[in-house]
Amino acid sequence: MTLPRAPRAVVFDLDGTLIDSEALVREAYFAISRQFGASMSDAQFLSLIGLNRDDNDILLRSYWGSNFPLEDFHAANRAFLLERVAPLKPGALELLDALDDLETPYALATSSGPPWVERHFSAYSLAHRFKAVITRTDCVNGKPHPEPYIKASAALGADPADVLALEDSHAGVRSAHAAGCMTIMIPDLLAPNDEMHATALRVVDSLHDVRALLVSRAPASADR
C-alpha cells in the first residue's frame, strides 16, 4: 500500500510516537496514585492514552471519585516526569533526516504541555527542526477532536488532506482522521483494533517503516 499522494507536510504526535514515553508516564501514574492512596489498573491507564486533559480528568474522577485532589496529583506527576527524559523512538532521527532531504516540513501536535515538549526538544536538539508546535495549551479542544491537527496543518501552510499524520493512540488517530489528514498508526502500548485498521491508511511497526514508505514515494513528485 502506498500513500494516495505525496504529503506536503508531516505532523507528529509526541508521546508514544516520537518519544518512547508512555511506559514512563505509566510508571509515574502508578507510583503517584499510590502516594495519594488510590490504585490504577492497566486497563484504566490505557484508557487515558492520547486523550486531552479534560477528558483525561473526567475518566480519572470516574475511577477515583469527584473529591480526589486531581490538581495535586497532576503536579506530583509533572515533578516526577520533568526529572526524566524519555528516549526517542527507533527511527525518529532517520525519519526527520529523510524529511529534511525531501524538503518536507513537519510539526508537532501533542496533548502534552509546553514544559514536557521543551524538555525533550532541548534534550535532542529538535526545536530548530520543527516548523510549528501545537500543545494542549494551544487548543480549546484536544484529541480526539480534530483541532490539534487542523491547527498544525495551518501552521505548516498545508491543507490537512495533504498532511501525513503519525500517531500511536486511538484518540490521536481519530483526531488526525477527523481533521482530514492522511494518517499512519505506529502502535505503542495500545494495539490497533478494527476501527484503527479501518481509519488509518496504514498500521506499521516503527518510524523506520514510515521513512521507507516516504522514500519509496519520493520519485512520484509530479503531484507536489
Please characterize this protein's 3D structure:
The chain is an alpha/beta fold. The chain has ten helices and six strands, in the order βαααααβαβαβαβαβα. The protein has a six-stranded parallel sheet. α9 (194-199) links the parallel β5 and β6 (202-203). α1 crosses α4 (70-81) and α5 (92-101) packs parallel to α10 (207-217). Mean pLDDT is 93; it is low at 220-224.
Summary of the model, kept short:
This protein is an alpha/beta fold and 224 residues long.
Q: Kindly state the number of beta strands.
A: 6
Spatial strand order of the main sheet: 3-2-1-4-5-6
Order of helices and strands: EHHHHHEHEHEHEHEH
Strand content: 5-15%
CATH superfamily of the largest domain: HAD superfamily/HAD-like
CATH architect. name of the largest domain? 3-Layer(aba) Sandwich
- Helix-and-strand structural type: alpha/beta
Computed CA radius of gyration, to the nearest angstrom: 17 Å
Terminal CA distance reads 19 Å
Keywords for this entry:
2 domains; 6-stranded parallel beta sheet; alpha/beta; single chain; 6 strands; disordered C terminus; 10 helices; Rossmann fold; 224 residues
SSE layout and pairings?
Elements: E1 9-12, H1 22-35, H2 42-48, H3 53-64, H4 70-81, H5 92-101, E2 106-109, H6 114-123, E3 132-134, H7 147-155, E4 163-167, H8 170-179, E5 182-185, H9 194-199, E6 202-203, H10 207-217
Parallel strand pairs: 1-2, 1-4, 2-3, 4-5, 5-6
Helix pairs in contact: 1-4, 5-10
